[in-house]
UniProtKB/TrEMBL annotation:
The keyword Hydrolase applies. GO terms for molecular function: endonuclease activity. This is R.Pab1 family restriction endonuclease. It comes from the Bacteria. The keyword Hydrolase applies. Keywords: Endonuclease, Hydrolase, Nuclease. It comes from Helicobacter apodemus.
Length: 51
């Protein structure tokens, strides 16, 4: 399992930004990933149900 902490925040956000502007499909994928992160971040035990 990949685990990121606050030290990686800037790098991850820049990667999402670059990936999101590559195409409409990538933009949609990035939005879905961010929504998942937001949901799981509120309750990490929901990860298996969120996928």
């Amino acid at each position: 399992m990949l685990s990121l902490d606050a030290r990686h925040k800037t790098f991850v956000l820049e990667c999402f930004k670059i990936f999101g502007i590559l195409s409409k499909n990538h933009h949609y994928d990035v939005l879905q990933i961010l929504h998942l992160i937001k949901r799981v971040g509120k309750n990490p035990l929901n990860l298996s149900r969120a996928l």
